[in-house]
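Archive transcription. Copying these from loose printouts into the bound notebook so they stop getting lost. Printout 1 of 2:
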Amino acid sequence: MKIVLIGTTAACVLGFRADLISALVEKGHQVFALALDFNPDTRERVRALGAEPVNYMFSRAGLNPLTDIINTYKLSKILRHISPDLVFSYFSKPVIFGTLAAVVAGVKRRIAMLEGLGYVFTERPGGSHIRNKILKHVQVTLYRISFPFLERVIFLNNDDPIDLIARYRLKVSKIDVLGGIGLKLSDYPYTPPPTDPVSFIFVGRLLADKGINEFIHAARLVKQTSPESKFIMLGGLDETNPGSLSKDELKALIKEGLVDHQGHVDDVTAWINNASVFVLPSYREGVPRSTQEAMAIGRPVITTDVPGCRDTVNDGVNGFLVPPWSSQALAEKMLYFVDNPEQIRIMGLQSFNLAQQKYDARLVNDRLMSYFI
């Protein structure tokens, strides 16, 4: 078949769709990967996978109806020129407008995947701001328009179809739950976790929605009784986001000696290898890739009992689930590992076993490709 993948950035194509592209090409399909920002380097890397990179135009964030209509028409012209058998779109705006463009272009088969419901569906302490409620209403309305044109919608976790399809009574021909998007497990070999001292690692943008404030507050609580414990943060600031830590706040934390912040690093695996426990106190996820990586390496996980995150942990088996927004509950589970360091290896092995069963990219991509046939 001739298959078009519509995503957002070239980095997402290479970071999250590379294994799928390789698997599709290996099966003899012709693949076109659409993104907003291919450059000469990323184009060559996509071609090395066997796919054809194609740029298209769209605003990743915000809603400007006239601009979105114009860009949808332009995208439909690209699709009409390619004339694919199937369009597979992923992420919110490509799912909505990529689907509509495929309809206009006369593409007969259209499949979409939502890897999470995103910012507007995330619950926060204090409730949702009125702007967030308006954006959610607009997004649901756009899903209501586009979903009937899809032969199936794929979700990563069991909560998202309930919170979107069932709650808003959206019309969809078929719903599938894929689980995590998977990893090339050979890139994440098991390593025994270090436990002297016990260290906790957070990987993600330093945003409130990722639980960075709870991680910091829990670290401060743990340090009161276990000053030798270490806390590592990988991820960059995003000061354009109102929920981001500021540079001054981060500098103060580092000066205090509370955290070791490495910013954005290329070799996340090496840092997870050198940590004892993986921590993600996020408010909502699809199925977080960073947690899958930590599990594959053999690390116990402390994460929140919220959509997406709860799918990665069997509570008390390979880690712990804690209530969202609770630094105290998070600190208590951190201290459990400080007081019971032997459990780090035991629960880490359980994480490793779960990753082998659930997150092998070969198995996940076979399941995903079965939806295309």
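Printout 2 of 2:
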Amino acid sequence: MNARANFVRMQDSTREDWQTIGGEFMQFAGGLPERVVKHLQILEGDYGGFPIDRYTHSLQTATRALRDGRDDEYVVCALLHDIGDTLGAFNHPDIAAAILKPFVTEDNLWMVQHHGIFQGHYFFHHIGLDRNMRDNFRESPHYDRTAEFCELYDNPAFDATAETLPIAEFMPMLQRVMAQPRQSIYKAAAVKTAPATPETV
């Protein structure tokens, strides 16, 4: 990834410049799953007072979803649902949703974006908030799906003795889900590339 365009102002760029940039971008985009996992691993050792660290919680949530027979996309959402904890201390679901948005269906995206409020059903009353805040979304077609995600996978995934698969188990799924965007303003310009070689990160 060494080729470079020649402009100093984007308004002066040429088609040839963008062919150069596009070629570099496709190589860069192919490495997205590995970069995402590296960011997820920042949560390792970050307990924040919880019984297990946030990285283990993420792996355990995904493990529970996988063992329950959920598809790749759902498991990837479970894996990444709290990836925003480091950058979005006050809005972490929005960070996860932004990362996943090009690659997942509307129901899974809504689930990730709203899981924080739905998870609050289990603890908001302890910190002076309304544990039924999720009921503001009762009319959403995604309400039950999101409540179920929290009940079955997010809520119980704080168990230091529970099965927690390593990240290598989830890499092939992450690579498949992120191989091609479902929606993006750049989708028409994208060229599908072969998935990156699975590796342990």
